[in-house]
Design brief:
Elements lengths: L10 H15 L6 E7 L2 E6 L2 H6 L1 H11 L2 E6 L7 H11 L6 E7 L4 E6 L2 H5 L4 H10 L2 E6 L6 H12 L1 H15 L10 E7 L8 E6 L3 E4 L10 H4 L15 E3 L5 H4 L2 H6 L6 E3 L1 H20 L8 H9 L1 E3 L5 E3 L4 E7 L7 E7 L4 E6 L26 E5 L12 H17 L3 E5 L5 H14 L8 E4 H12 L6 H8 L11 E4 L2 H8 L4 E5 L8 H9 L6 E4 L8 H6 L4 E6 L2 E6 L3 E4 L9 H10 L6 E5 L3 H15 L2 E3 L6 E3 L2
Helix pairs in contact: 4-6, 12-16
The structure holds zinc ion.
Zinc ion binds next to loops.
Length: 648
């Protein structure tokens, strides 16, 4: 059998051929110094990059005829020295742009200009930007200065700058593999569930064609301590890490991204595709995951070095950009409406003969439960044969309560608790749910319907919020409008206070009435457990659960009414009486409920021939499969883990 690893024989000649074709086609004044495959791109290095910029149509035409993504970069030798380039930019850009930072990216030959007024850096029809490029030969990219700085984003940028040589080599190796010629005249497509089929947690799908093997998500089961339930089924014959061509990450939640660095510990050196918001958020959650596991004596599956490898191998793409994963699969990520950066993945296989979309966590149309943070999931695809859908809340009785009722209930609990001198603890996911609640609290506070008390954001939530404010382009159109046109950024509302350090936590639990948001959402670890221990015995306090509480978690026991909790602190057994008020509010979900999934399917265009339901309790997914099959006469499947479906 011919294995992927062995398909190298005619690769070098193919690259040489492509290079000479390109150089022949381009205007001579472009002065191409080299042509390199870097990841999915064909990169042309030019001694005179602005000449190519002015001939954009030629490059577009070439890309189209070659069916490759072409990127133009300035040759390193013509780029101005950074200090000089910086000084020149400050001369060119008018002062009223209020530049706050300039970050050089050696790998891309780009300079990111952070400015309070990006329009002033761009100039009329982009004139100022063009002038900058001509003068310094670093391609300028303008972003709005983020109102809250993220330490995590800074550290990712530092890693990429410090390791730019390694990064470049990694991309060149990946590029060789992507642009290899086709050798196997077969066209099967198979999908195997390594995790997250007929269950919620450890999502991991293996997609295989004769040419390519792709993993979609690689998550952990956060609530579980048993390795055989924590990890996807990596130990099957079809899964050989040396043969994986690409790893795609739908979104940052740990049940989808938590074990991506583990693949690197295991020796994977291929690409990870996601967008920049997902890269930032998953890095944050993975770092926290290993910190918390270490602190609590749980299995720590990888370390910081493996996370760094993941960052160096991650290729970020925006929504709607088309990317070659290999010689027979093209990837497009589109909005999923679930959390910041979450994507529905569309795969265009074998010259478009087969098209597959995967919505592994999505939020569809939301008449009853509109969310503020994000726009709804995309429902339109160029072509679609099979749709893979999550079905967490696909059961017949899964109806998310009306969003407005959920909001009013939350505000009522906060007002009642704080006016009797108590504190409200909201255990929350750091990413998504927490920011959704912040938008709600800021809104009611501004309307003076919420009592003026501080809302403390514990460490991880504050950092995740900073990341949201650095990627406003992924927020809902409504929220962007509110932030940029009305100057009303809910994340900057004065009620929010960031907590850092143990001492500060103590003074909060011992201090005046307040709201505290902390991770984890099911009290399975993290600071929410510490706050809970401090607050549980005082009957003036309240706890509000806003997420699903999984079987076996402390959150589940408390929300189901257990009043006596035993815990071991510093080796001593403690008994605690839970006297605080206990509430569960379900209306803030980032998932689609039964109706929303049906609505999503109704609007889905074109309609697929087949629907595969995953990421749900088996009975719920089966009930949903029946409903979809009956109404739309499509083939439905509810596979188990380790089952393989042949798609064509
Ligand atoms: Zn999720």
């Amino acid at each position: 059998m011919v294995k992927n690893k062995d398909k190298q024989y005619s690769r070098e000649t193919a690259i040489e051929q492509l290079k000479s074709n390109l150089i022949d086609e381009l205007p001579p004044n472009a002065q191409i110094s080299k042509v390199v495959f870097e990841g999915p791109f064909v990169v042309l290095y030019s001694l005179n990059p602005t000449a190519l910029m002015e001939n954009g149509d030629i490059v577009k035409g070439l890309a189209k005829s070659l069916r490759k993504r072409i990127v133009i970069r300035s040759d390193v030798s013509v780029r101005r020295v950074k200090d000089e380039a910086q000084a020149r930019m400050l001369e060119i850009v008018p002062e009223n742009a209020e530049i706050t930072n300039m970050i050089f990216d050696d790998e891309l030959g780009e300079v990111i200009i952070e400015a309070k007024k990006p329009g002033a850096v761009i100039g009329r029809s982009g004139a100022t930007l063009r002038e900058i490029y001509r003068e310094i030969s670093w391609r300028p990219k303008v972003v709005r200065s983020p109102p809250i700085q993220s330490q995590l984003i800074k550290s990712i940028r530092n890693t990429l700058t410090a390791e730019s040589e390694k990064r470049k080599n990694a991309l060149i190796n990946i590029g060789k593999r992507i642009h290899r010629p086709k050798v196997i005249p077969d066209s099967y497509i198979r999908l195997t569930g390594l995790g997250g089929f007929s269950e919620v947690g450890r999502s991991c799908l293996l997609l295989e064609t004769a040419e390519t093997k792709v993993l979609i998500d690689c998550g952990t089961n956060v609530g579980s301590r048993e390795p055989n339930q924590m990890f996807p089924h990596f130990n099957i014959a079809e899964f050989d890490i040396a043969e994986i061509d690409a790893v795609l990450v739908t979104h940052a939640h740990l049940d989808h991204s938590g074990l991506v660095p583990f693949l690197f510990k295991w020796g994977y050196r291929g690409p990870v595709y996601s967008n920049d918001a997902t890269l930032s958020l998953m890095t944050l959650l993975q770092k926290d995951y290993i910190d918390v596991s270490e602190r609590e004596g749980k299995l720590v599956p990888y370390n910081q070095r493996d996370i760094k490898q993941m960052i160096l191998h991650t290729i970020t793409r925006r929504y709607w950009e088309v990317t070659d994963l290999s010689n027979d699969i093209r990837l497009t990520m589109t909005p999923a409406g679930h959390i910041l950066g979450s994507s529905i993945i569309h795969l265009h296989i074998g010259d478009g003969k087969y098209n597959l979309a995967i919505a592994n966590d999505f939020k569809g149309k939301r008449k009853r439960s509109p969310t503020q943070l994000l726009d709804r999931a995309n429902t339109r695809f160029p072509r679609l044969e099979t749709m893979v859908l999550e079905s967490t809340y696909g059961g017949p009785r899964d109806n998310t309560p009306r969003r407005e009722d959920a909001e009013r209930q939350l505000i009522k609990i906060i007002n009642r608790t704080t006016s009797r001198g108590g504190k409200v603890l909201i255990p929350s996911l750091a990413v998504g749910r927490a920011q959704e609640l912040m938008v709600v609290l800021a809104h009611y506070y501004k309307r003076r319907e919420m009592i003026d008390v501080p809302v403390y954001l514990d460490g991880l939530i504050a950092e995740a919020t900073a990341i949201h404010s650095c990627h406003p382009e992924y927020l809902s159109a409504h929220l962007q409008d509110q932030i940029f046109n009305e100057g009303n950024n809910p994340f900057l509302c004065e009620i929010f206070k960031t907590v850092s350090g143990q001492g500060e936590r103590k003074s909060i639990t011992g201090g005046s009435p307040s709201v505290i948001m902390a991770t984890s959402e099911m009290l399975t670890g993290g600071n929410s457990v510490e706050y809970f221990k401090q607050l549980a015995e005082d009957d003036r306090n309240s706890i509000v659960f806003v997420s699903y509480q999984a079987e076996g978690t402390l959150g589940r026991r408390i929300s189901s009414g257990v009043k006596e909790i035993r815990s071991i602190d510093d080796g001593r057994m403690n008994m605690m009486r839970v006297s605080m008020d206990i509430h569960q509010i379900d209306g803030f979900s980032g998932h689609s409920d039964r109706n929303e999934i049906m609505n999503f399917f109704r609007e889905l265009s074109p309609k697929p021939e087949r629907v595969i339901l995953i990421h749900g309790q088996r009975n719920k997914s089966q009930s949903l499969a029946q409903a979809i099959g009956k109404r739309y006469h499509v083939k439905t499947d509810v596979p188990m883990n380790l089952e393989t479906l042949r798609l064509n």
